[in-house]
Specification:
- This protein is an alpha/beta fold and 436 residues long.
- The chain has 2 domains: 180 residues, 2-Layer Sandwich (Nucleotidyltransferase, domain 5), CATH 3.30.420; 231 residues, ATPase, nucleotide binding domain (Nucleotidyltransferase, domain 5, 2-Layer Sandwich), CATH 3.30.420.
- 37% of the residues lie in helices and 15% in strands.
- Strands 16-17-15-14-20-21 form a 6-stranded mixed sheet, with helices on both faces. Strands 2-12-11 form a 3-stranded mixed sheet, with helices on one face.
- Strand 8 and strand 9 form a beta hairpin.
Length: 436
């Protein structure tokens, strides 16, 4: 890594893609001088619709927009249930998936839907703009696998599923090979296919068999590379492809690092203060349990759920227990995702803890007591962007495998020291409140 830059774009669950383009051009101003190749890794699932002239039809619906939850349920039922979807595309669609957003658009905004000629993912649209916006849009197998209408095991679009959702077929990006050159920037830099954010992180980390990454950002994800495609009919594990030709089974929660910031705000402290409070409490938080569904939830599928505190008594109703319960609750949700991965046959020897939430001293200390596997914290880096850069280098070198980059220098492995009843209590409360 020789230089980096960043620029903000608006928060929310829908956004006009031009905001991404503005942020990209601001961040790369002067950054790409002399650069020979570039690639984009972007958030998965988002729906960018364009008309016959390539103009954006409506603001993009993002992965975290829950309005298509009912559409997801309808599509699962129409195809014959979750097993049918898992067999078809390796995943059971939830509101995050592009296929459900297309159904929502067709049902709720028919005038806009009628003008749609093509659909892209966020990274597809940015890649297309980088190459001038006049040629054929492209994507990669990793990001395509999160649409709900591309099959990782078959390596092809299921346009029948797209048409089922939207009422008709529309143009979709060509799926490029992992190391392919898909175009050039106006300055002549090679443009690689790009990929989704989780696939980019896996590539940036250099994940190997037996490694699972647990990323604590806006959402929480647990994912691992695997040689075989997965088909989890429970929907807990999405059977994605990765950015190299392998597969990337993944479990996702909507609530991760923002659980910590929201709890800190409620307690009137900053994040360092939250860490201090959580570390002052005993493991198990005196029986206090937080179900951290502050923005609904994807795993388990509870789009209308809210967060809730349980087990409060006069003797335990203390700030330090609430702080500890927030950290433990967030990690318990992701520990369930880790268990779901291993239940599908994915080997996990160690867990790499990353993302903004991994900066928390309390998270780093408590994670080994919740996850049940050795925990490693790589050095802080934007691994999604590192993965995109590594893919660009791969397209430039045209080797059989991505170039080896020592990007994820890690600290020592911290062996698991499970605390009895933390996860058991969390599971019992979740089942009692939500029945799952």
């Amino acid at each position: 890594m020789v230089r980096e830059a960043r620029a903000p774009h608006p928060d929310g669950t829908e956004i006009h893609p031009r905001a991404w383009w503005s942020a990209l051009t601001d961040a790369t101003s002067g950054l790409l001088d002399g650069v020979a190749a570039v690639a984009v890794a972007g958030q998965q699932h988002g729906m960018v619709t364009v008309d016959g002239e390539g103009e954006v039809v409506r603001p993009a619906l993002l992965w975290n927009d829950p309005r298509s939850a009912e559409a997801a349920d309808d599509l699962v039922t129409e195809l014959g249930g979750s097993q049918a979807w898992a067999d078809a595309v390796g995943s059971v669609p939830v509101a995050s998936f592009t296929v459900t957003k297309l159904r929502w658009l067709a049902e709720h905004e028919p005038e806009a839907a009628g003008r749609v000629a093509g659909v892209m993912l966020p990274h597809d649209w940015l890649t297309w703009r980088l190459t001038g916006g006049g040629g054929e849009p492209t994507t990669d197998r990793g990001d395509a696998s999160g649409t709900g209408y591309w099959s990782p095991s078959e390596g092809r679009y299921r346009t029948d599923l797209l048409a089922r959702a939207f009422g008709r077929e529309v143009a979709v990006p060509r799926v490029a090979s992992p190391r392919e050159t898909v175009g050039h920037t106006p300055s002549g830099a090679l443009v690689a296919p790009g990929t989704g954010d989780n696939m980019g992180a896996a590539l940036g980390l250099g994940l190997r068999t037996g490694d699972a990454a647990l990323s604590l950002g806006t959402s929480g994800t647990v994912f691992a590379v695997n040689d075989e495609a997965t088909h989890d009919h429970t929907g807990a594990v999405s059977g994605f492809a990765d950015a190299t030709g392998r597969f990337l089974p993944l479990a996702c929660t909507l609530n991760a690092a923002r659980v910590l910031t929201a709890t800190a705000a409620m307690l009137g402290v900053d994040l360092a203060g939250l860490d201090a409070l959580a570390m002052a409490a005993e493991p198990g938080a005196g029986g206090v349990v937080l179900l951290p569904y502050l923005d609904g939830e994807r795993t388990p599928v509870l789009p209308e759920a809210t967060g809730s505190l349980h087990g409060l008594r006069r003797s335990t109703m203390r700030p330090e227990n609430v702080a500890r319960a927030a950290v433990e609750g967030m990690l318990c949700g992701l520990a369930d995702g880790l268990t779901a991965l291993t239940d599908t046959g994915v080997p996990v020897r160690r867990v790499l803890l990353l993302g903004g939430g991994a900066r928390s001293a309390a998270v780093r200390a408590i994670a080994p007591t919740i996850l049940g596997a050795p925990v490693v914290v790589p050095r802080a880096a934007e691994y999604v962007a590192v993965g995109a850069a590594r893919q660009a280098a791969w397209a430039l070198t045209e080797g059989d495998r991505p170039p080896e980059w020592d990007t994820a220098e890690a600290g020592p492995e911290v062996e698991p020291a499970l605390v009895p009843r933390v996860r058991e209590r969390y599971t019992a409360v979740r089942r009692a409140v939500h029945g799952v």
